[in-house]
Amino acid sequence: MARLLAEIALFLVPFAAFAVYLRYGRKVDSVFAGWSLRAMIGCSVVAVLLVALSLYFLEASSRGPTTGRYVPPTWEDGVLVPGHIE
Predict the structure, then answer these.
(1) Are 44 and 11 in contact (CB under 8 A)?
(2) Which helix or strand (DSSP H or E) is residue 18 part of?
(3) Chain-centre distance of CA 22, in angstroms?
(4) What separation in angstroms does the CA of 68 have from each of 31, 51, 72?
(5) Strand ranges, E, within 1-86
(6) Which residues are paired to 86 by β-bridges?
(7) Cβ proximity of 35 and 16 under 8 Å
(8) DSSP assignment, residue 30?
């Protein structure tokens, strides 16, 4: 659940940053005054890249060892021994 919320937050960051820029950088008073199609496409592209990069880095950091011989799960004395890499 936390990972899903983090991904949603990462997707919304560029839109929030652009809204803050419009409000305080350009001094735009109306909420939708500075939003053009080009700005929406740009924010969407940046948001998708942020989400894709975060998914890649989260997957790469949680990956186990990738070298060695895989031993599949087995039953030993009535106990399931999970698969592992030796």
Answers:
(1) no
(2) helix 2-20
(3) 25
(4) 56, 31, 13
(5) 70-71, 74-76, 79-81, 84-85
(6) none
(7) no
(8) S
The pLDDT tens digits for 25-75 are 887 777 677 788 888 899 899 999 998 998 888 887 777 667 888 899 999
- Note if the pTM is more than 0.90: no
Q: What angle do CA 44, 49, 51 make, to 5 degrees?
A: 95
Q: Are 64 and 85 in contact (CB under 8 A)?
A: yes
The answer to whether residues 71 and 64 touch, using CB atoms and an 8 Å cutoff, is no
pLDDT value of residue 32: 73
How distant is the alpha carbon of residue 52 from its chain centre? 6
Residues 11 and 29: their CA atoms lie apart, in Å, by: 24
Q: Where are the domains of the chain?
A: 2-74
